User: Which sequence fits this backbone?
């Protein structure tokens, strides 16, 4: 899937994936897509809730070999 | 849109409890909340500089200063402290799991614009002075806390 920016948050523990995601989102424009890669198994719940609260769209997510990848479209 | 607010009262002076407070604070800041942590009683020790700062103190204040942890990294655990072995063990485990140490969480909170507030009344009781605490923090009392908390969407006492 297309992404305007990729954030590698693999290996980071709570709360860093969400803190880094917020920072990365601040750097992209409205309508652009951020790809977040993380190994935190709580990330699905965390990023889903975080995107919803900010009005962003979680377009897709996958899990492969313990790496969770998310695509979030900025509001 | 007006920003949501999170306030946390950090009363406890243990590493694990302070860590929970600072993880929530950092998370809330990432949620774009306006975040304030009020440090009172033992929670003030999280704000202490780890270096000894020469200030004038009474005998009692000196004793308090010596008995309390000088800074976040020196705090004990609320459970399984084992006379100081507990914190060493948990820090090892944290390293393995890439969890951020408390001093880093505090720095990150400041970077994210979290308001760190020190309760002046308990500073007086414990004999802590501004020079001994981190730079760029605020000083206030219960009214300032209530002002923030009454607009708070998330208010915690830890």
Assistant:
């Amino acid at each position: 899937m297309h992404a305007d920016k990729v954030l590698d948050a693999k290996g980071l523990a709570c709360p860093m994936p969400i803190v880094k995601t917020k920072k990365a989102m601040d750097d992209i424009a409205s309508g652009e897509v951020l790809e977040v890669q993380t190994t935190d198994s709580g990330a699905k719940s965390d990023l889903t809730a975080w995107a919803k609260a900010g009005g962003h769209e979680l377009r897709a997510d996958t899990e492969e070999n313990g790496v969770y990848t998310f695509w979030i479209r900025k509001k | 849109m007006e920003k949501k607010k999170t306030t946390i009262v950090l009363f406890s002076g243990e590493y694990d409890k302070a860590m929970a407070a600072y993880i929530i604070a950092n998370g809330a800041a990432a949620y774009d909340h306006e975040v304030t942590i009020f440090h009172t009683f033992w929670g003030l020790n999280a704000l202490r500089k780890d270096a000894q700062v020469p200030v004038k103190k009474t005998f009692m204040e000196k004793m308090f200063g010596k008995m309390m942890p000088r800074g976040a990294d020196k705090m004990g655990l609320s459970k399984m402290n084992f006379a100081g072995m507990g914190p060493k063990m948990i820090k090892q485990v944290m390293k393995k799991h890439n969890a951020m140490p408390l001093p880093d969480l505090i720095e990150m909170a400041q970077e994210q614009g979290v308001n760190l507030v020190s309760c002046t009344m308990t500073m007086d009781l414990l004999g802590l002075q501004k020079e001994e605490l981190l730079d760029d923090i605020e000083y206030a009392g219960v009214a300032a806390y209530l002002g923030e908390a009454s607009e708070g969407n998330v208010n915690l006492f830890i």
Observations:
- Chain B has one domain: 5-157.
- Chain B touches chain A through 13 residues (CB under 8 Å).
- Chain B is about 40% helix and 15% strand.
- The first helix of chain B runs from residue 15 to 30.
